[in-house]
C-alpha cells in the first residue's frame, strides 16, 4: 500500500471527509437517476455505487494507489449503499428538492474535484497534473452514471460542467503553489465549483457553443433539464 | 509480477479453469450479440474479446495484478477468438438454444463471480472486498458488451443480475471465512448465481422496483427479453 | 516510474513522436465530433482530450506504466487542447476535407497502433501481446469518443477498423521478431493501417458480415458515413 507522501494528519482527514461526502452526494445522484428509470433495488444500488466510486477509483488507478481507497475502505461501500437505500425508499422526499439529480451531482463534482486534486498533490504530482486529475475525478462519477444509462454524459451536455470542475481543482492547485492553508483552498475551490454549476442550473450561465455555418450538425440536447 | 499469496496449486488451477470457462461463455454471449447486429467478422471478434476479458482485466487492475492475466496468457485470447469464430460461422446452431445470449451471459456471470472472488482472496483482500470484486468481475463483461452496443447494461435492465453475482461471490467469501473446501464453495457459489439468473429468465423472479408517486419517470425496458 | 527496458534514444523519441502525433489526430477527430454536436467550448476540449488520451492511458495502465504518460507529460494535454481549440475556432476549414472525422480517426488509429506496439515491446511483452495492446491502444480513442456521444463505437460500425489496427500492430511486432529497423516497421505498419482504413472509407472495402437465416437481427448501421 502506497503511503501518502505528506503524512499530514489534517490533509489525510480532509481528503477522507471530502471523498466520503462526495461519494454520498454522487451516490444519491446515481440512485435518484436509477429510481426515475424504475430500476429494481439492486439496480439502484449498483448505479449509486458506480456513480459514487468510479471517479475515485479511476484517480487511484492513475496515480498508482492500488487497491483503490473505495475498495479497500469499507466506508465507501457503506456510504454508497446507504445513499442508494435512501433513494429507493425515500425518493419522494428527495424529489421535493428543485433539480435533485443535478444539484447532488454538483455537490459531488465540487467535493471530488477538490479531494482528487489534494490527493494527487499529496502523491507528488505537479500542480498542473493534479488539477487535471482533480477535474477527472470530479467528472468521472457523472460519466459512469450517464454511460450506464446509455446517455450522453452531463460533462458534454450540461453547461459550465468541466470548467466548474477545473476551476475548483485549479484553485486548490494554485493555493498549493502559494502555500495557502489547505482548509482555505479546499473551501474556496469547492464553493467556486458548486457555485458555477448552480449558476448554470438556476440562472442559465453558459459558454460559447460550437457552430460552423454549413457544417453537418447533430446537436446534443443541452438544456440541462434534469 | 505479483505472486498469489496462497501458492496452492489447486487454487491456482481452479481460478484458471473458472476464468477460462467464464471467458468462453462471455465471449459466446458477446459474439452472438455481435452476430445479431450483423457486424463483420472482426467486429464479432472484438465484441467477443471485450465481453470476455473486460471483467477480468478490471479486476486485475484493481488488485494490482499487472499486466492482467488476459493479456499475459495467450489462452484467454485464444479462447475468446475461438468463441467468436464459433458464433460467426455456427450461429444458427447456438440460436437453437432458448435465450442463448442471456443463458451464456448467466454462465459467464457465475464463473467470473466465483473466479474473481477466489483470486481477490488469494491476493489478500478482506472477504467483504473480495466478494465485491467478485461481483464486479462478473458484471464487467456484460457491461462492456452492452455499452459497446450503446445499450443500457444488463446489470441495470435484467432482474436478479447484480444480486445473483453478489450471492455467488458471498458464498465463496463466506466459505473462505468458515474454511470450507474450495471446490465446495466454488460449486455452491456458481450454481446459486446461475440458478438465480435462470429463475429470473425462465420463471420471472424479480426484486421490488423503484417507484415514487408523482416523481418524473423514464423507465428502462426491464423485460429481460434477450 | 518504470524505465523502458530498451533505453534506446531512437526508440524513445520514435514512440514520443508517434504518441503525440496520434494524440493530435485523435484530438482533432474528437473535437470535430464535438463541434458537429454543437457542444460548448469545454465540451469540445473534453471530447478532444478523452478521444486522444484514452487509448494511451489504458495501454499504460495495462503494462504498469503509472502515472500514464498522457498525465505525466504536459505536452499531451497541450497538444489535445490545441487541437480542440483549432476545431472550435476553425472547424469550417477542417470541414473542407472529405470525411474529416474519419480520416483524422484513421491517422490516429495508425499512429497509436504503431506507438502502442513499440511501447509494449519496449516494456518486455511478447510480440503477440504487444500487437494486441497496440491494436487496443489504436482502438481506444475512437471507443472513448463514441461512447461519450452515446454511439456504437467505430470499431464495431466501420469496415476494416480493428483489422487495420491489428495489421499495423502485427507488422511492427513481426518486424521486431525479424530484427528489422524500427523506422521501417513503424512506417510500414502505419501506412498499412492507414491505407486499409482509407480503402474502406473511399473504395468500400469490407469484410464478410455475420448473418444466420432466421436468427433475430437488429443490425448496426454499418454505412461508415461520418
Can you give a write-up of this model?
3 copies of one chain form a homotrimer. Helix content of chain A is 73%, strand content 0%. Chain A is mainly α and 226 residues long. In chain A, α2 runs parallel beside α5 and α5 (100-122) packs parallel to α8 (162-177). Chain A is globular, with a radius of gyration of 17 Å. The N and C termini of chain A lie far apart (40 Å). Residues 1-6 and 221-226 of chain A have low confidence and may be disordered. At the A-B interface, α1, α2 and α4 of A face α2, α6, α7 and α8 of B.
How many structural domains of chain A? 1
Q: Let me know the average pLDDT of chain A.
A: 87
SSE succession of chain A? HHHHHHHHH
- The end-to-end span of chain A amounts to 40 Å
Instruction: Name the beta content range of chain A.
Output: under 5%
Radius of gyration of chain A: 17 Å
Number of helix segments of chain A? Answer: 9
Give start-end ranges of low-pLDDT stretches of chain A.
1-6, 221-226
The geometry of chain A reads as globular
Oligomer: homotrimer
How many beta-strand segments of chain A?
A: 0
Which pair has the most extensive contact? A-B, 32 and 42 residues
